Amino acid sequence: MKLLLYSHFFAPSVGGVESLVQSLARGLTQLRTSSGDPEFEITLVTQTPADTFDDKPLPFRVVREPSLIHLWDSIRVSDVVHIAGPALVPVFLGLLARKPVVVEHHGFQTICPNGQLFIEPAGTPCPGHFMARHHRECLRCNSAQGWLASCKLWLLTFVRRFLCRQVSSNITPTAWLGGLLQLPRSVAIPHGLESIAFIPATNTKALQPPVVAFQGRLVTTKGVGVLFEAAHILAQENRKFELLVIGDGPERAALERMAQVVPLAGRIRFAGRLAGAQLGAALAQAAVVVVPSLGGEVFGLVVAENMLRALPVITSDLGAFVEVLGDGGFTFRTGDATELAGELARILDDPALALRLGQLGRQRALEFCDFRQMLEAHARIYQQVRS
Description:
By secondary structure, the protein is an alpha/beta fold. Helix content is 40%, strand content 16%. The strands form three sheets. It has a seven-stranded parallel beta sheet, with helices on both faces. The protein has a six-stranded parallel beta sheet with strand order 12-11-10-13-14-15, sandwiched between helices. The protein is globular, with a radius of gyration of 22 Å. The model has no long low-confidence stretch (mean pLDDT 94).
């Protein structure tokens, strides 16, 4: 089967979608028919330039920055078109060519003009204004970009929603997201982690002071400010701990200034962006990982990956996180620093609880994020929509 995978962003661009698409494409090339032939011939199309990235080692063909005609030709010769996110042009061209189109949703673009389900001016989760037809709230939310840009985002949400109602299948990484999107022919397929067999379980370290870790981009929606507030509460209670911040982003300078204020001064360490062995070594020191996001999350790769490391994980109670965690972690009310501080205290005060929670989380992640099951579920979708 000739499968076209379209991802607007791809390596060397760094992000969750880029990693997931590359992992999916690589995994699908390994699937074989009963006669031993490759099940899929994959072409990955992206608008991301290669720069210094070498596509040659990849086990699939990569087409970068195609013209509209080239994209149309690539779609016409494909049996199935899989699009990472509701990108308007490829979805429209796929439908125009009467090809089976599968859209995998990595955000809220069909129910929220800014794609985050997050109210930017207030810094709070959106209750679903677009789907509730509170369109003035949507326009007001994005007005900082200018009213013309805000209106454009709002109108394009209707277009994306209309097109996704016409495609052969809509895939979401969580059933929770599928329930929010309310699109026909929708199926939930959890993200499988390609390195699932290679992430070793690590015992919670009895380091003094214990390390509380955050891993993610330093932007408003990731909720680092809430974690700092919780750390402030713990510090006022004279608890010993160190907060390790892994990641970078536009809010780093402001957060570094906050970290210099008593009683947080000397307790927070910024590690910057880490990957591979460096990331593993840093997280091996952690007693607990906190994912305090305020919105914009449809799955939670950081949550699943650290569950696989057998680290106890505490997250905000966003629907995606709750589904991924199962009974393998603790949650706190989104944005509630006092409740987060209480959950952190439970972990820091009880090493046996931390170890037990880490083991539960690892088992949950092994079952929920099985890479082979994810590949086979996608393959079934492609076969069904082609027939």
